Amino acid sequence: MNQKQTTQKVANHHISNSISFSYKEGSILLGVFAEGKKGRKGYGLRYLQPLVKEWLDQMTHPQEKYWIGCVEEDALCTFMVQLSEQPYIAKWYLTQQLFQHLSEKTRICKRLFTGDWQYWVEDGNEKHADRVVFKKFSLFIITKAGKNSAQLMVSYEGSSSVLKSNVQSLVRKFRLDTHLIGQVIFEKRSRSYAHLKDEFRLQSECLHPILRREMAAQLRMDFPFSKEAYKLKKAYEEIEIFRQQFLNNEEIKYILPLSDRWSSVPLRFIQKIAYGGRLLQFGGEKVESDIYRGFSQNGPFLLPKAPHYKVFFIYCESGKSIKSTLEKHLGEEAGYQSLQEISHMDLVYDADLDIYVESSSDIVERVETHIKQLEKESDTQYFAFYISPYGKFDNKPAHKKVYYRVKELLLKRGIMSQSIEQEKNRGKNLNYFMPNIAMAMVAKFGGIPWKLARETEKELIVGFGAFRSSNKKKPFVGSAFCFDNEGRFQEFDCFAAEEEWALVGMLGEAIKNYRQQYRHVKRLIIHYYKELNNKEMEQVEALLEQLEENIPVIVVRINNSFKHKELAWNSKHPQYLPLNGSYIHLRYQDYLLHINENEGVGTECKTAPYPMKVSLQSNVAGLVNDPELVRQLMQQLYDFSLLHWRSIKQPRLPVTIAYPQMLARIFPYFDAEVLQELGRTRLWFI
Question: Is the dihedral of CA 173, 174, 180, 185 positive or negative?
Answer without folding.
Answer: negative
